[in-house]
Design goal:
425 residues; Rossmann fold; EC 1.1.1.23; zinc
Amino acid sequence: MIRIVEAKDFSLKREEAEPYEKEREIVLDIIQHIRQHGDEALRAFTRQFDGVDLQNFRVPEDAFANAYNRVSPEFVAALRDAIANIRRYHEAQRRQSYMMIDEEGTTLGQLVRPLHRVGVYVPGGTAAYPSTVLMNVIPALVAGVPEIAAVTPPDKEGNVNPGVLVALKELGVTEVYRVGGAQAIAALAYGTETIRPVDKIVGPGNIYVALAKQAVFGKVSIESIAGPSDILVVADHTADPEYVAADLLSQAEHGETSPAILVTPSRELAEQAARALERQLTLLPRREMTEKAIRNMGAVVVTSDLEEAVEIANRVAPEHLELLVENPDDWIGRIVNAGAIFVGSYSTEPVGDYYCGTNHVLPTEGTARFSSPLNVDDFLKKTSFIRYSKQALLTHGHKIITLAEAEGLGAHANAIRIRLDKEGK
């Protein structure tokens, strides 16, 4: 089922970006209606797409209490432990403002402040993920964002997934709206009578959500336009083929366009992992979709050595990279393109998805070459601070004039010259 190829014959199959012209037109129309008609349009689109007529979008306070009654105590306990781990990890990313004073009395610095208001999109329905709440909200809280509003699609009865509500409540986010799709993104970006606009929108969604985020970028900030989730496992003869197969499947079940790749110098492991994958696949609840992903986007690549395996990994720049080799510490430093590196047999990818503390919002589709996981910096803004001293201006002003005149910007030069003239310099 999964193709086994030699390294020289391997080329990563990624889905070609589709223009999505029809979907884009729909999204732009929705955004325009929200801008013009506010809540009225939001109510109409919620009725059309979610099948429910809502008079009030905001989730009432008693819904949070009811949500706790609909989840298990074990879920709440695990969620709280995950929150503590994720918070601890992100607190190490805090930044501070700084100032530098030189011998001429000039002060230069950077003021670091949180964004004022952030919107978090949380998928609903069959793709409701409480973990999405944790990964998007916690770094914003650690950054010090004072206002966080969440939007999530309602079900046919107008309810929100209880696990999502519990996760939000545990983090202290109670400004939650029962709206989804492109209309929710438009409401966050431009505001309606009920939903105040935000400075940044984060969180995953379907193609309509992705296109809407793309359309409102510039009016607000966004974290990324996420593509299909992917995984690449670099393994040698010491790796357990059952572990390898399970980890490949853990990402393939996200969707039929999700790449799942094993790169190994061991042909024996390649064949064993391929057989294990077929066995495990028959037991999965999302078998049909996962099987399509493995058939269409999966690959086992046999290399001449680990050096070549790491070269391929860096070329692919995977979202998730697992390093299942005998001496992993010898190879970690050579991996330069990856969203997250999972080291050793017990660092399976779901550990990062849910619990250990690192963020699971990672760069996809090879963008790990230049992008980073979602982090505290994504919720901060930085302002330069300049207090130039009189002595410094008198000493260096003529140099600034020279540079300004070289660019033909006379008014720039004059702003310096007028000061020097007044001081008799």
